[in-house]
Amino acid sequence: MAQSSPANASGALPGQLAGFPPFSQRHLISIADLQQHEIVELLDRAERMIPVSRQERKSLSTLSGKTQINLFFEPSTRTQSSFEIAGKRLGALVVNMSVKTSSVSKGETLIDTAATLNAMRPDVIVVRHSAAGAVELLSQKVGCSVVNAGDGAHEHPTQALLDALTIRQHKGRIAGLTVAICGDIANSRVARSNLLLLGALNVRTRVIAPRTLLPAGIEHLATEVFTDMEEGLKDVDVVMMLRLQHERANGKMIPSVREYYRFYGLDAARLKSARPDAIVMHPGPMNRGVEIDPAIADGPRSVITDQVEMGVAVRMAVLDALLPDSNGGPQ
Amino acid sequence: MNLVIRNARIVDPASMTDQSGSVLVEGGRIADLDFADAPGIPGGAEVIDAKGLVLAPGLIDMRVFVGEPGKEYRETLASAGEAAAAGGVTSFVMMPDTTPVVDDGALVDFLIRRAEATAKVHILPAAAITKGVGGAEITEFGLLKEAGAVCFTDGKQSIQSNALIRAAFTYAANFDMPVVHHLSDRELTGDGVMNEGLFATVLGLRGIPVEAETIPLARDLQLALLTGVRYHAAQISAGNSISLVREAKRRSERISAGVSINNLTLNENDVGRYRTYFKLAPPLRSEDDRLAIIEGLRSGVIDTIHSDHDPQDTEVKRQPFAEASGGAIGLETLLAAALRLVHSGEVDLMTVLRAMTIRPAQILSLETGRIARGAPADLVLVDLDYPWQVKETELRSRSRNTAFEGARLAGKAIRTIVGGRTVFEMSEEALA
Question: CA of A113, closest CA in chain B: separation in Å?
Fold first, then answer.
């Protein structure tokens, strides 16, 4: 990571995040629910959280006495760990629940689990579910804040926020940049949240994918749509690669991994189309040799590990914003 | 018991009548019509002063799902009958995908008897095209017809095999029975749960392209023309389907098409944020599709409007959208929702009523659906402007999954008459 944010250049470590007005949202379900100023505020809060994780004693007490439940209906190592670390660094009691689901009883489990967990009086539930809209549905059944950690192909708002924070850290700004999102747009919640967030911050967004991986109406969500990597990457500031699910390359949408890599894999030659200072991002987990050349993934332009670091900061900021009045007595 | 309904605005699409007058009912049938000011009233007759309200043939709803037998907690013949009567529906066709499936003459016979014993309105059983609505083997069309089935349909199922559809059409033509077919290409529909387009993309839901309807429709229409079957496309949702039906109708009078009131009055935007009462099959389409279907209704390409009444309990509806069951109830709101189109000036009253009275009657060879001497006295008195708000808790269906919850509607059945007997009447307080 190149720079700390200007807010922390003074060297003052935030004990409490003073200076932010109360956050107006109770849940974080969708980037679409956020106003531009709310997005910027979350990014500013997150920026203040970065040094917390870099100091030796990585803890605040702002969520002390609060209970956070991570409820993951879909397996996830990195997102769940990131939320867990974020909550613990803020002093919350964090409980992880992985719910194995059979396809027939998914919904039943969702509502039943929501009622059960709600009775344990958590302050925030972080939810990942395979069905679009499931997190919103759950949020209607509980009395606490709910954070969407990914719902089907709908949204993954903290991913978009951490991506934006990473861009801001490296580029010093977000507005006016050109960002290309490449790959399986049709099935990606990361792409949707990023298109909404970047669009709200006046970024020129491009999507690049074979037509079989572009969803209907995408031209209304992205500024430009490309099916050719070289053309689409021309002069972009940021290249965001998406993971290609192996099951997509089964001859139904994509004939083979090697054909996909030949036309849509990111390698040094293709990256030459982008601006010389362009950064390369990936939400992980990566398929090296499928959507990205290992030399790029692990090379100097890659900011992929920074994204992971920013992920913790963003999730700390989101939890802190949604759970107000931390030390202010009974609510 | 004789009955005279006087001072009514008689609207009968079969005869294109829209005129004030009186109707005399004797022995459950319409004995006489009188358009004079002072009709002769037989002694002892009950007299109803319609006070200028519309008197129309009772509505015939061609697509209703009932939970009996098998899922009585969702709906029984009796509760569906209550909802129908309150909605001005005097006959409805009951879909065969019950538990067990209505694919056997004995079941048709049972349902007719059971409906006569428990339901206030005429319930007309449809029989399955294929055994167990499995799409593989045709049922005993002859025996099912003898038992009293009014048409063949696989309900929510769409037959994928071209050869089987051809065989079914050919064999149905043999018995001169109508085949009503839901149109959904299984593979193009895939995991889709709503109309394909920007809205589905934003919600992260899999879309269903209109071609999932137009491709099986084009196949059906060609095979209907080949076999000469009386074919009814169960429900059209896509504007592109209209031109296909129009072209086929030019070549055969035995082809007809229906539309759900949902696809006529709602569109994909109504799904909002994963509202599962708007998860329907066919899916709610774009506003352009809706407008094209309305034009199809006006120009006679669309013959019938039905409720697609499909009771589902909250357990299967309170789910993430993709996992929730589809369907919405509609018997009680069909008339009022259809009158929306009249009030908005999109379709005239005669056209809307025709699609819910005489056209279904003709397609199903029923003697109801008209106000004529000798016809059964299935009638509805309608206040076209009666204002009311849909409240799920006040609807008579056993299930609550209405797509019109909270909707402010104008128009209501004030009195519903089946075979000369009043089966529904709005209370004086409600009318006050």
Answer: 13
Q: Please give the domain boundaries of chain B with CATH numbers for all domains.
A: 3-55+376-383+407-431 (2.30.40.10), 58-364 (3.20.20.140)
pLDDT of B221 strictly over 90: yes
Residue A163 has pLDDT above 70, yes or no: yes
Can you tell me the distance from the alpha carbon of B416 to that of B81, in angstroms, rounded to the nearest whole number?
Answer: 12
- Could you give the CA distance from residue A65 to residue A95 in angstroms, rounded to a whole number? 13
**Chain B CA closest to residue A217:** B198
User: In chain A, which residues have their Cβ closer than 8 Å to the Cβ of B322?
Assistant: 131-133, 152
Q: For this structure, is B154 an active site residue?
A: no
| Cβ contact, residue pair A154, B273, below 8 Å | no
The answer to whether the Cβ–Cβ distance between B202 and A217 falls below 8 Å is yes
**B196, B197, B204 ranked by CB distance to A189: nearest:** B204
The label of the residue with tokens 């802190």 reads: A320
Pairing of strands B194-195, B207-208: parallel
Instruction: Report how far apart, in Å, the C-alpha atoms of A70 and of each of A76, A83, A119, A254, B280 are.
Output: 11, 8, 15, 34, 33
Q: What is the mean pLDDT of residues A245-260?
A: 86
Residues B204 and A102: their CA atoms lie apart, in Å, by: 21
Query: Is omega for the bond preceding A157 within 30 degrees of 0, making it cis?
Result: no
| Contact check, Cβ <8 Å, B321/A136 | no
Q: Report d(CA B141, CA B127) in Å as an integer.
A: 8
| CB atoms B320 and A152 under 8 Å | yes
pLDDT tens, residue by residue, A176-187:
999 999 999 999
pLDDT digits (tens, 9 = 90+) for B38-71: 667 777 889 999 999 999 999 999 999 999 999 9
* Model pLDDT, residue B431: 77
d(CA B57, CA B417): 9
Q: Is the ipTM of this complex over 0.95?
A: no
**CA-based R_g, chain A, Å:** 20
Mean pLDDT of B187-204: 97
pLDDT tens sequence across A192-212: 999 999 999 999 999 999 999
